[in-house]
Structure formats: structure tokens, C-alpha cells
């Protein structure tokens, strides 16, 4: 070994001058520089690649989803970014008088998060790279249920939609009076809550062109939204969020495809929840954002399928010895009595419909329905029978007045209180059948197109809608009823008194409404409903005989408020008109009937 070292030393000593010459040559300098460059590249290239892979892992959003977007997010945009955890800007605004909080005084103490997730190194898109939602709040669905054009590979995107995603859409559905859903203008591949049409935007909403909040539903399920300054301070202090690095900054057009990005300082990132409880916290933050951006506190919770109305909807008022719901009268929603006498009539009317329809509750072919919605359940007769006939089916009934139904109902029936003139609060694709009967006097005239669209939205693909309406314009099978008859006067004045608010002719338009909404397999029928036992057909004569008692009660019940309160008809004159109309309805040679319209349609 010693001899080898000695030989090596002798070799290098004898060739020192040659090595010096070699180093001094230009070629050698190039070699050394190249070697150093290669070393630098070898060290930095993996880091650059990992940084790029991190950028790609966020999924599309904000800047272009390619190397150009990565370069902008990594090199250029950070030059204009802000610090993300400072609350000084909010404290200044609070001191200047912007003290309103929509989260409550102790929210940041009661909802404190134990630690923050790690956020990716890029300003845009701003995403979590740790602490994704746990299995507890995941509900996996087929990848095909995610929008086409977004999913480019199951290895890049999570295969399902999380519980928070459901809460986000349920919140949107329940608050359509305040918000609408549309693709985000800031995150092109995210759905966002926008200010509903007709609302006056607050300054922050105006700055963001109406966009309130959006969810990053194809990756980490964090959210971006705008909050009141006091609430921004709370969520940051509670460890639930941070500022966007561009909040309060107007970025150059060139960085964002020619668009000026101007985010308010209240624009923040909210971290994804990890548990069911944390998902509820995030919904509270979403609600606070909507309140701040819309200026309205009438925000509904997504926790229940529909909203239970408060005691004001239970108040009644007496008009000429009949009982009406005060809220419906005050808001011109519903003009029929809600007393025991009317409940008895509705029960009789249901039995008449059973005779007309040969005891068939459901007309379309639905062998094993799982969920049914009954709109305007009244005394609950149809809903109760549907629940009894299909014990494995969940039946939900909606009506604005809850106290005409019996206390004893099937376990699979849930009767809820809501105003059908408001948007439905059920999630999309929810019901196998939506049943709607005799709502012409309750649904507002302008509401019918959106009412049918709501029905279509909550139907499952392949689900059916079934509509039944009476056209209260009395007809004669032999044409003998004229303008001088009390029955015709009752019809004309009833429809005229409600013309501005209700469409009592809607039965004649059901086919067109369903077709316009995009429903298929639409079928409509008109059935003459005799007012008394005048028909030669034994079956129809039996129906008419039963309907005689119903009509005798229906004429004053439907007419009392419209005639005496809207038309200001004196009570004695009204009583005389009703007495004559009742007599004519029982006059067989007039052959009087109401046109009864039935229409069904299917969601594609």
C-alpha cells in the first residue's frame, strides 16, 4: 500500500505543470462550468419538478392548469402577495365602525381548530395539501357523476363527493331567495354561490360581481368566501382560515388572461372540515358570508329537508263564522277556510277522487317507489293512503297549514309545513314521484313555471310528476247554462276576483307547463266531474250523487273570502247567490260539471 501511495505522489508531482496548463485552457473552463451547472441542475431540477407536481395536484383553478400557470404562480404572482395570517386590516375596519359579526360573540372560542393544515406553496390556486376530509364525512359516488371535462384521471382527483359538498348544495337549495348556483368566475372549475337575481349587491358583492363563496369540490374541499371584517378576524384567530395572498391586491391583467383580479381584503380561505361536526362549523361560516354579502339575515339551515314555520303560521282569523289562516290571508296566498267543516269536506272530496280514479292513488308505472312528495296535503288523506300502500316508501307532505291532518299517521309519513310559493328546499334527484292536487287557489300565478321546474329538479331521473286540478268554470253537458245562471256568475266572479294573484285556469295549461319544463311522456286528460247525479252512466251517476254534498259545501267555502273581502259583495247578496248556485248544481237537466284535469310527466 505504501509503495502505491509513493508512486501516485511521484506521478502528480512530475505532472503538476501539465495539470496547470490543462486548467488554464478554455476548454477546461467550459468543462468545469458545465460540471458545476450539471450539479446545480441535478440538485434543483427534482425540487422544481416536485413543485410543479404539487401545483398540478391542486387541480384546475385560478391560473391556467399547465406549465405557464405554474410559472406565474411560482415566480411572478408572489411579488404582489400579502401576508396571510395578519388581522390588522380587519382590526382597523372594526375600529372604524365595521363591527357587525354574523358568527356570534364567542364563535372563535367555541369553534377553535386544534391546528392548521399545510397550504401549498403557490398563491394561486390556494389549496390544502394535508388534512383532507376524513372517511367520516365522505359519501362516494361514481366518477361519472362528476362533471365531464373536469376529471382527467382518477389518480389526480378524489373519486367522490364529500359530505360538505352535500351541505353546500343543500344550503344553496334552501336559500334560493338569496343565492343562486353558477360556475365561479374566480375558480372556473368550481361551483359558486352568487347573489340571487333582483337583490341589490353590497359593495363587497359588487366588487366580486356577485360571487359570494365557492367550494373546491374536486380535490381538497376547502372554500373561498368573503366575510365581514369581524368574522375574518374570528376565523383566522380560531385557526379555521387565512387570507388569500391577493386579498386587497389588484393584480396585473397579464397574469390572469387579460382580466383584472381585484379581491377585497375580506376574501379568505376556509379549511376543509375533517368531521361531521366541523362540517357544521363550515356551514355556519358559509351562512355568515351569505348574510354579509346579501345584507339579509333570513338564511335557512340545510340541516332539515324543509323549513318548519314559526307560530305566526298557526294564527287564524274568523270571517263570517269561518276560520282562515291569518298568514295566508295577509300575504294573499290561500283563501279557503281551515276549520273542521272544511276538513270534513276535504275528506269527502278525497273519497270522490278515489271513485273517479278507481282507487288508484298513483297513475304512472312506479312499482316500488322509495320517496314520494305530496304537495298541498290538506287533511293528509292522499299522503296517508300512499304511505299505507307503500310501507317501505318514505312519504313527505308539504302544506302551509298543519292542523287539518289527523294525529295518528303512518311511521313512514312525515307531514311538514312550508309555503309552496317558495323554492323547494329538497336536494336534486330525490323523489320517485311528486304528487300535486288542487293547488290552483294556492300557487301564485307567476309561480307555476318555476313550481314545475322545482318539481322536475327534485325528481330522480325517470321519476314522475302527477298533477290534478279542477277548472272552477262550471260547464253544462248540454250547453244549457248561460250567463244568467248563478253557477256561471259564481264561476266568473270567483276567477275575476283572483285573476291578479292566481291562475284558476291552470288545469288547461298543465300539458304545456310540463312540456316547457322539459318533462317527457306527458299525458293529460280532462274528466267531467258531475255536480250531482244527472248522468245516465251508473258509475258517473254514483260519483255525481256523492259529489252533490261536496259541491254544496264547496261553493260557499271557495267563494266566501274572494266575494265578500276582495269584491266587497254584501254578505246577504253572497248568501243569495250561493243558495241559487247550490239549487242549480242539483238541477239534473242543467247537467252541470267541473272540468277535472289530470296530467303526468316523466323526468328524462
From TrEMBL:
Database matches in InterPro entries: Luciferase, Luciferase_dom, SAM-dependent_MTases_sf
One Pfam family recorded for the sequence: Methyltransf_23
Top-rank lineage group of the source organism: Eukaryota
Luciferase domain mapped to chain residues: 210-289
Transmembrane segments: 61-81
Keywords carried by this UniProt record: Membrane, Transmembrane, Transmembrane helix
The protein's name in its UniProt record: Luciferase domain-containing protein
Organism in which the protein naturally occurs: Aspergillus arachidicola
